[in-house]
Amino acid sequence: MLRTASCSASLTSASPFFRHFPLSYSSLSSSTGALRAPGRNLRRVASPASTGRRVFLRRGLRVPSTAGRGVNRQLSRLSVRAVATQPAPSYPDVGQDEAEKLGFEKVSEEFISECKSKATLFKHKKTGCEVMSVSNEDENKVFGIVLRTPPKDSTGIPHILEHSVLCGSRKYPLKEPFVELLKGSLHTFLNAFTYPDRTCYPVASTNTKDFYNLVDVYLDAVFFPKCVDDVHTFQQEGWHYELNDPSEDISYKGVVFNEMKGVYSQPDNILGRIAQQASFGGGDPKDIPNLTFEEFKDFHRKYYHPSNARIWFYGDDDPLQRLRILSEYLDMFEASPSRDTSKIEPQRLFSEPIRIVEKYPAGRDGDLKKKNMVCINWLLSEKPLDLETQLALGFLDHLMLGTPASPLRKILLESGLGEALVSSGMSDELLQPQFSVGMKGVSEDNVQKVEELIMSTLKKLAEEGFESDAVEASMNTIEFSLRENNTGSFPRGLSLMLQSIAKWIYDMDPFEPLKYTEPLKALKARIAEEGSKAVFSPLIEQFILHNSHRVTIEMQPDPEKASQEEAEEKSILEKVKAGMTEEDLAELARATEELRLKQETPDPPEALRCVPSLNLSDIPKEPTYVPTEVGDINGVKVLRHDLFTNDIVYAEVVFDMGSLKHELLPLVPLFCQSLLEMGTKDLSFVQLNQLIGRKTGGISVYPLTSSVRGKDEPCSKIIVRGKSMAGRADDLFNLVLYTGWHLDSFLFFILLQMNCLLQEIQFTDQQRFKQFVSQSIARMENRLRGSGHGVAAARMDAMLNIAGWMSEQMGGLSYLEFLRTLEKKVDEDWEGISSSLEEIRRSLLAKNGCIVNMTADGKSLSNIEKSLEKFLDLLPESPSGGLVTWDGRLPLRNEAIVIPTQVNYVGKAGNIYSTGYELDGSAYVISKHISNTWLWDRVRVSGGAYGGFCDFDSHSGVFSFLSYRDPNLLKTLDIYDGTGDFLRGLDVDQETLTKAIIGTIGDVDSYQLPDAKGYSSLMRHLLGVTDEERLRKREEILTTSLKDFKDFAEAIDVVRDNGVAVAVASAEDIDAANNARSNFFEVKKAL
Ligand SMILES: [Zn+2]
Questions:
Q1: What is the CA(547)–ligand 1 centre distance, in A?
Q2: 450-471: burial string, b at 16+ Cβ within 10 Å, e else
Q3: Tag placement on the chain: N or C end, fewer CB within 10 Å?
Q4: Alpha helical stretches, state H, 812-893
Q5: Which SUPFAM superfamilies does UniProt cross-reference here (predicted)?
Q6: pTM value?
Q7: Model confidence over 1050-1079: pLDDT tens digits?
Q8: H or E segment to which residue 526 belongs
Q9: Nearest CA among 600, 883, 875 for reference residue 759
Q10: Sequence-ordered list of residues with C-beta below 8 angstroms from that of 584, at least 6 positions apart, any chain
Q11: d(Cα 341, Cα 347) in Å, to the nearest integer?
Q12: Ligand 1 centroid vs 254 CA: distance in angstroms?
């Protein structure tokens, strides 16, 4: 769900709002040797899988641990831990007496074998607050407090409150304790999010002391925030009028206000919002300014009360200690009726379908006729569904839409009626489950045809059922994902919490969603006995075809809408100004100044000292080492990582792009997609796709480029990743029969499949290829609107280094331009394209330059030799064509990329190695400090942008500044330019320094699941980062001094003096900037 929900779904029930960017440090990033999140260093160009929500403030970094394709969010919703067969281990217990003494009663207790956990439900007697206390061996401990917060309108109260309560509290009376925790804790997760009917505050850490620190700050924030007494926080996070000088125009400012403006710049989000048809807690920028401080305070008083709270604890800490911590807070409250007043009432189902037509802001260029969107939505039931039905619907969803071979997805995409699917699938996190399916990039005349095709396909599926291979493939994919329970860097305990809460929040059983084994067994048995048609056809009929609660939404592009909205906002503000007296205006300017001063005044040291922090002595002196054995098979380097993986084998085969012709580079992402989604001589792509689904846990193929420190040549590779269950001998045997391979290990089929993809795929399907191109265009356009900072960063990197240029050719604005030309070329010269794809294969595929990386337990690893030998034997010795030299770069210049938007993305970057700066571990501490203080305070807090941060790529030396959903442009660039002076004037005491160091170590040591450990080790190998160097960098981090900050100031000035600026922004703002600073930007139109 969260981890895999696509960005485009950010307004639908499945994905709540993420605050800030603590997610930015992924499991991959912090251990690639860069020590600190080199989000951009490892550029994995987008694969066809859905975009992780987590990437939203970093560039293009993809989660490495989700090699599997097409397991969509409903399935991951079910990704609980592996099924346990062993008896329940014993965990520390809380006796009834002990609980009573602390004011709790034990309501129920169960051992949940699916997650090898003992779970106890407590009730706080005085307030009725419910607590789920889950004990197991997971060191990645999770705490979460969830409140039911039904919004009554679209003024965004729940969302603004979510932001505001983290801005200081009774025990922690500083501006933003949240930011202090971001800076100086070892958290593995720290965030807050707003759903349409609830607000969640989760934290996680592997360090017990750190964990309880985080818990205490969050509890105090939720129950005793300062924001209810302080209108300034409300103004800062929600909205306020800004007037710097009475002679200027008044404008709106506010973090949530701008965040939501950004959200509403994306048509997919508008669609999701309408589909929800309910008052919306996120907030509509048009309505946010109607919210008053009184309503805001009232909402907190009403709903942020223990009686309306559900609390979750998970992990290997002492369950009694959890109750002690809680009782201290909960005992301060009396019972309140909020639990009843916050009840979520189900919506009655419509007796007739309805249709909604809306406009969305579009650019003036491009073919507007082909930019319609249409989506059909069903509310599936009036009452919540039982787990088996829900599970069956999840299956059905995967069968219809989960992979490129799934019939509903395939038929829609092959119809040529639209560019890509939009907002499609089941979502079951709210009281009433929904299903939706639709397309974007549709021409006006085709809107109705899309609707008809959806309906007729659903009807056909109900009548004819699904192929048995498809059912088996879905079954295996789902079981694999349940068993693997790979939540990436997202804590497992949090994933479980969100599953549990999805029922618990509606007063249903919190244990039930965690126990999938029995319903899964029952479902499988029914499919075996009655056949899949008997199971799935009635579901399609009952919930979709015969369901009159059908809402069809059509969205039409409107090139006037963005400027219209801007004009409307302007006229409202003009009226506001006209209604003010001179005194009023002077007062507003004074209030603006007061707020700004308050925002820019640092917290006094004694306030900062309140936030609990670890000491340097709590920090391990050594980095975490991943067991790595480097061997050789037939001249190919093989890395083996002996780690417990719960019987799963993870394999990466890496090929070198060193012989690839330059002009073929932009075709590489489509080459990768073709490998996975075109057929071979013997197998259609559907059959191949099902085979992979039935026999493996998924295969993915993607390019990866990075600079290598101290070297001119970049690292440029194609990575083929796959995973498989360790033992499936019977299936294996069947495969062997028709391929003639001999069976000597489980690894065999993953290698077999990889070999098949690499060598046997035929690049002959012109129509499918054409779809890939139009889908890629749609995806890139979405990226420009939703992750413009990533596009800007890629652009700057492409000017500053070769690896950046390569990456931009395969995933940046250059790529989008290439795709648009290619789209025409597919019809004119398919032969040429097809032979180019062949040429890419020949220049990549070779033993020479190949590296294999394996992660599994020792026994499995020792079996690989023969299979691997066989696999490698089938590869050609050397690539065709000689070695090429990569030397491309974009010309250095300041660039503004025009898109229809209400908020901008502003970047500036330069290479600090060009000043002679030598990498020192302190650089990570310093850049984190710049992000968390200077940029946070100026770009976000007083600038009103949703995010502002910097990134240091230790491989290339590029230091970049970026903002996200930013109402400003030149002003933000000025802030970036002031960074050197900020560092020079900086005076940090030892405590602040310690905090910054600990926070940096938290990133370096971020929690990793075994596959991520093996993958990180591979990355370090590719980028030449040794364990000795990691140890040295760690020592440098731990001994960072104030002098390092001052020295760094000199290096960072290069960004101000010689850096390049790239903004993705609205035409109006770019014009204004070019007028103010005589044609500072070269203007480039993109949408
Ligand atoms: Zn937010």
A1: 35
A2: bbebbeebbeebbeebbbebbb
A3: C
A4: 813-828, 830-844, 858-862, 865-873
A5: LuxS/MPP-like metallohydrolase
A6: 0.85
A7: 999 999 999 999 999 999 999 999 999 999
A8: helix 517-530
A9: 875
A10: none
A11: 16
A12: 11
